[in-house]
Task: inverse folding
């Protein structure tokens, strides 16, 4: 199955993560790859503004990149129609090396599952004198020849005219539910036809007179002729019965293509079955997976942007094929199975790196893509005011403004203001809207950052925020969770933190007994001014 390579930023996606995924996907597709940008969470108001401004569709949400049943190279054609004969089902399984097969109605609607074991049980314990078959199936199974056909469905009790005398057979009560196997015995044929039996099977290629044939037409009696003898015909005709009659009654264990392979393995290890039908939520059969298929599956292909830490990345990354990383953060704890392309630069935005990838590939940057790339850089550098900003970022911004036709200051402030409103956001939304987690030795901590002009609104509720941070810190078992409320006009941040970390925060910023809501002038960069300060003090602790 051909699948697009997904390009994703980190969890709790910000504008740089989303726009760099979009811009890099455009570049990769221009270079011949088949990729699509995806997001690992809801986009924030600022990002929504950017996407709407440039008329770009929001990337779809990606839950994980775990291996699913659909990634396994199983046979999607394994199934048999419920009206097929037992003989056809048996032959189908034997010729293809199956021990069972899904049974379906029209349009591949799943009916059930049948195995060679069920077929054998049916033949041994079933009613040998009953027939529930299609006319065509009977012809095929007994290698017959069509003589007269009036009905598609043939159902009734089977009789073999092997009696010592024709007179003995004439005492049997025949009717429209009778199927008779007979040679060329005229009296028996005449008796069957006059009683309007459902089907006459003439064995040993015996002839039937024109008079008898005309009477059979008049009485609408179905007739089949076969070269087989009566004994062989009697043995085989039961195999003409439709396979749906012996489909397993209890609901068989099935899987959806979207099910995770790990869940499939867990169930199959308990049940010890070899075959499992693949059925979707609408009841449509998509084939059958066998245990021997599990050695051949295709991992999902992933490219990461704006992060390289496993905790911040897509779930199931260890089950996927990681092709490339494009990032501007410190190298984290992510490992790969094979060598990959890892582009890491000390710049203010991932989009600055993507810009250089465009130039190196000599691919022209369209106006819209230039606009979203510019947005990512202005967002991550706070319109080039962040200490993470480099001369490289400034040069790139200048060129992207020229391509997009935008004024950096005017558009940048419009974008930041669009994302700064707290209206309609819950406390959880604000803390976790732009949030990342970090680990130092045995300790973990989390930092949320919100850029806003409405910082007074948060400070008025700081007691409630501190309680929320305390609860979250306890729940996660973290050393600290802090929320930096960044004033995008004055370039500083008010900080709220879990109450047990007062000493840690005081040491990190050289403030005596830091209070909740303390203003840190010039502190606006999580990467350079928040994470390093806190990480250093945690390291000093132990």
Result:
């Amino acid at each position: 199955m051909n699948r697009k390579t997904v390009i994703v930023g980190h969890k709790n996606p910000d504008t740089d993560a989303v726009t760099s995924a979009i811009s890099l996907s455009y570049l990769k597709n221009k270079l011949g790859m088949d990729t699509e940008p995806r997001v690992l969470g809801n986009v924030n108001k600022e990002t929504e503004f950017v996407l709407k401004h440039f008329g770009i569709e929001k990337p779809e949400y990606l839950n994980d990149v775990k291996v699913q049943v659909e990634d396994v190279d199983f046979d999607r054609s394994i199934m048999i129609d419920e009206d097929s004969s037992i003989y056809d089902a048996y032959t189908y399984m034997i010729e293809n090396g199956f021990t069972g097969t899904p049974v379906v109605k029209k349009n591949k609607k799943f009916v059930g599952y049948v195995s060679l074991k069920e077929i054998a049980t049916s033949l041994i314990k079933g009613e040998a004198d009953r027939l529930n078959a299609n006319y065509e199936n009977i012809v095929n199974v007994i290698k017959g020849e069509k003589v007269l056909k009036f009905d598609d469905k043939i159902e009734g009790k089977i009789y073999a005219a092997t009696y010592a005398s024709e007179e003995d057979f004439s005492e049997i009560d025949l009717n429209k539910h009778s199927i008779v196997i007979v040679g060329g015995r005229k009296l028996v044929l005449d008796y069957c036809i006059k009683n309007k039996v459902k089907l006459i099977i003439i064995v040993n290629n015996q002839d039937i007179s024109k008079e008898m044939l005309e009477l059979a037409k008049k009485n609408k009696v179905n007739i089949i002729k076969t070269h087989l003898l009566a004994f062989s015909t009697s043995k085989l005709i039961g195999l003409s019965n439709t396979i749906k009659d012996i489909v397993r009654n209890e609901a068989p264990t099935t899987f959806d293509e979207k099910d995770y392979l790990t869940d499939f393995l867990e169930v199959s290890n308990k049940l010890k079955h070899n075959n499992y039908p693949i059925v979707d939520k609408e009841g449509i059969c998509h084939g059958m997976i066998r245990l021997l298929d599990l050695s051949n599956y295709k991992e999902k292909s992933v490219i990461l942007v704006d992060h390289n830490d496993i905790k911040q990345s897509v779930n199931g990354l260890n089950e996927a094929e990681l092709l490339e990383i494009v990032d501007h953060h410190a190298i984290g704890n992510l490992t790969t199975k094979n060598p990959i392309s890892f582009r890491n630069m000390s710049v203010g935005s991932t989009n600055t790196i993507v810009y250089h990838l465009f130039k190196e590939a000599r691919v022209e940057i369209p106006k819209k893509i230039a606009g979203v790339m510019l947005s990512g850089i202005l967002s991550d550098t706070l319109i080039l005011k962040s200490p993470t900003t480099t001369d490289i970022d400034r040069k790139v911004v200048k060129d992207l403004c020229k391509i997009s036709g935008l004024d950096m200051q005017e558009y940048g402030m419009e974008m930041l203001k669009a994302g700064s409103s707290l209206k309609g956001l819950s406390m959880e939304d604000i803390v976790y809207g732009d949030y990342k987690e970090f680990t130092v030795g045995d300790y973990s901590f989390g930092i949320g950052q919100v850029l806003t002009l409405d910082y007074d609104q948060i400070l008025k509720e700081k007691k409630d925020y501190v309680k929320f941070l305390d609860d979250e810190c306890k729940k996660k078992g973290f050393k600290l969770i802090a929320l930096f409320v960044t004033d995008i006009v004055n370039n500083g941040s008010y900080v709220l933190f879990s109450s047990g970390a007062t000493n840690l925060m005081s040491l990190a910023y050289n403030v005596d007994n830091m209070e909740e809501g303390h203003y840190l002038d010039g502190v606006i960069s999580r990467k350079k001014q928040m994470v390093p300060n806190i990480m250093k003090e945690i390291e000093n602790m132990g």
In short: Residues 5-66+300-419 form a domain with the inorganic pyrophosphatase (n-terminal core) fold (CATH 3.90.1640.10). The chain has a mean pLDDT of 93.
